[in-house]
Amino acid sequence: MTLLDGRKVYASLALLSALTLTAGCSSMDGNSSGLEYEPQVRKSRAVEEEVGTLSSRLLEMLKIKGKVTDLAPMASSCQVDDDDTEKYRSVRHPWSMYDVDNNALEKGMDNLAEQLPKRGWRVVKDGPDESRNRNREILAVHTKTHTQMEATWMKGLDGHEPMISFAVYSRCFRDPGHSS
To answer: Where does the chain have alpha helices with state H?
Structure first.
């Protein structure tokens, strides 16, 4: 596997994690969508910009320099219990920072953990993930927008390049451009 293929795999894993966590946010509470909240009506483009801006702020919070994957936030269907899932959307932004050594990445994760609460994020987890490598993972929710963030420091112990992988994703919303 080439380095580029490895980055694609990590980006895909970040997207899969975002999809899994977003799907895990639903519950049966009598709401027609099956979500724990009533989805707001918002244009996909506005939510993409919001998620992109929050991702940029996360990059700044790392306070380290490295290369960043060039993936844009993207809207897609949001899985809900409603019969017409297409009217619900969610924006996801998977990206990674790489080409930095583990000492810098550790400092970046420490900076992120320190800055998140100061910048309107509620940290819900900061500790090892479930992988064999026990990578450090930070999960947080932006208190104003309810955007969720997952950052995982992959140390490269499995022979891949060390990196911090991010998945930033919005709550489900209803795009007025999609039929109800």
So the answer is: 3-23, 44-62, 102-115
The residue among 171, 152, 176 whose CA lies nearest residue 13 is 152
Whether the model clears a pTM of 0.85, i.e. scores above it, the answer is: no
DSSP for 7-37 reads HHHHHHHHHHHHHHHHHTTB--SS-TT-BSS
Buried b / exposed e along 88-106 (16+ C-beta atoms within 10 A): bbbbbbbbbbbebeeebbb
Query: Euclidean distance between the first and final Cα of the chain, in Å?
Result: 44
Please state, in angstroms and rounded to a whole number, the distance separating the CA atoms of residues 61 and 119. 9
Q: What per-residue confidence (pLDDT) applies to 34?
A: 66
Contact at 8 Å (CB) between 66 and 97?
yes
Distance separating alpha carbons of residues 79 and 34, to the nearest angstrom:
10
pLDDT at 154 (0 to 100): 95
